[in-house]
Amino acid sequence: MPPLPGFAAVTPPDDALPASVPTEGCESEPIHIPGSIQPHGHLLAFAGDGLTLSHASAGAGRLLSTAIEAAFGQPIEQVLAGTPKEALRTRLHQLSATAPQQLGRFRAAAGAVFQTTGHRSPDGHAVLEFEPEMESEDRPEADVTLEALYPGVRDAFTRLGRAASTELLASTAAASVRHITGFDRVLVYRFEENWDGTVVAEDGNGRLPTYLGLRFPASDIPAQARRLYEVNPQRLIADADYTPVPILAAQPGPPLDLTHAGLRSVSPVHLEYMRNMGTPASMSVSILGGDGRLWGLISCHHAEPRRVSFAARNACDLVAQMFAVRVAAREEMAHIEARAQLKGLEGRLLARMTGADRLEDGLLAVPTDLLELTRATGVAVLTDGGCALAGYTPPEVEVRRIAAWLAQRSGDEVFETNSLASVMPEAAAYADIASGLLAISVSKLHPSFVLWFRPEVIRTVTWGGDPRKPELPPDRLHPRRSFAAWAETVRQRSTRWSAAEIEAARDLRTAIVGIVLRAAEERAELTGRLERVNRELAAFSYSVSHDLRAPFRHIVGFAELLREREGEKLSARGQRYVSTIVEAAETAGRLVDALLNFSQMGRTALVPVQFDPAPLVAEVRRTLELEQAGRPIEWRIGPMPSTRADPAMLRQVFQNLLSNALKYTRGRDPAIIDVSGEASDTDVVFHVRDNGVGFDMAYAHKLFGVFQRLHRAEEFEGIGIGLANVQRIVERHGGRIWAEGRPGGGAAFHFTLPRQAAPSDEAT
Known about the structure:
The chain is an alpha+beta fold. Helix content is 38%, strand content 21%. Among the domains are: 24-132, Beta-Lactamase (2-Layer Sandwich), CATH 3.30.450.20; 524-601, Helix Hairpins, CATH 1.10.287; 609-754, Heat Shock Protein 90 (2-Layer Sandwich). Helix 18 (613-623) packs across helix 20. Residues 1-27 are annotated as: Disordered. Keywords: Chromophore, Kinase, Photoreceptor protein, Receptor, Sensory transduction, Transferase.
């Protein structure tokens, strides 16, 4: 919309700093109706369709064509002389109830020029704000037009587009805002879930102390102040020592609502906070997430009073919006990637639940999948049939106590906390393994839950001053006075559950309640289609790997013939080339053989028989004698119960596990390899343990993937398909396999086979 005659394009409201007071009194202070404004401008408010003057700041008489007392109740055309009547009324009737609009330059009768904005207040008044125009020659860095500021904004846009992380985005935004405004220090302040704030980026000239990395309590910015930051994204406090200018009213009544006003006066306690901080001037720009929720603030401070032009404040607001868009896009992409990674786990869990008779059997058939779904270290599945645990969990009696506590909470289908002891004090006894809890209720009829646990992570938080409430005199409120770094050790808290993990748990609950338990026939039909596709993929894999064997053998054969018959004619380099061809072809051949073997695992029918596995283990040891030559190896072969399985396939399981144990104990003196087994009512459990290099449990989920390796190929040979074969064989028998280890502390592989006959002898 073009500016009115007598008015020219201007910018939105002002800013403040991320601070308020740690007292309950400040939480209830009505800061949106202070009854006064800051003295670096004037305010007029007009009521009704007639736009008659209802409120004016003391001193606003210099804007009017008559004295304030005489102007009250008069229409705007008579109050502001020289303004075009119809155009002015049209613009004021169109004022937004959510954001100030630019109305341009206004020249008062005395000749002074003001920058002017207008907005519709929540109580229905048309509010005009006037600030004296800043002269760039008086302050060179205070550009007065957006055109002059455009290069800086454009540079910020380019640099934000190149930033590769949220940290770089924040530091770029801070530097850009300081360049535009000339403030001594600019912070990017991010709110945590509990509204504590952390300074994640800072740009300064050294005149003020650094706050980078410091944390500030939620009470520093009370709830009503945060709400104002969401609806009024800019605030300027030009001088913390100002004397408030009262707002006069035509007649008694409630104070004028200044929610959207840039000149709004601030709490005296907040001004004291600024003085304690040593920052006479401050400006802040809100950073809003895609949902309109307050993400953080760009907070500017100066060591002396300072005004900032409308144009500069608008430019800073634009930088904040660009930053917010970039951050939201980055966070959304991270969330999408995390959900995509977890979808595969969800699919496997659903497939197992569909074919299982009991919920816990399907969920815990492969415990690592259920743990990895939420990046937990322990999980419990409670149903009316019992309690099944996996990983590191509290004792069963404590797990049942947690479930009973959850059952008493109404409506908590999904519950999460990273500090269980803070809501359930008795949980402090096992905070080392269960400080974090993510739980889903999977039945409305019985107290059935899936509970994930995370351990305590002890960390040190550095606060910007002691966050505890000070001792206050009874007569008035005071903010804290010290901002010196204050360290606190935080215990009984785990890492937070991410939005993707919580969503994955919620989706799993939906699947259990809404799909698996209510639509078993549909899931069975889908499983059948997936099995057909898997069989087709297995057939394709078999065909391709089978057909590739002959070409690689030909390459090796002809290369050997070339070396044998023409070797004397080849140079040393040519001979090296031939050797490289042979080695590469042999490696590729071994890889193809492994793939063929892997595909055959899904095509070969099971022929289970009852037999003693001890002779089979002894036979595998004999085949590995060449790998043992000259090495000190201590074999500890324990008793193993009779089992029902396919002997040829079980031989491959032990062949892979024992070969790996020999490989990864290389260099141990002596190497210790322990093989044992025991029977339960339903399963036979086998164990293969060693004292080798081990592995990090954080990567345990990769062990059984095709071509997954946890060690460099230069250190330990192999193609990375052996454990995938082992898992496929064990699962085809109806069992499960898992591993435990620690770097330098050895590894242990455990697998089960059911005592009854294998569930199916069909290829899968």
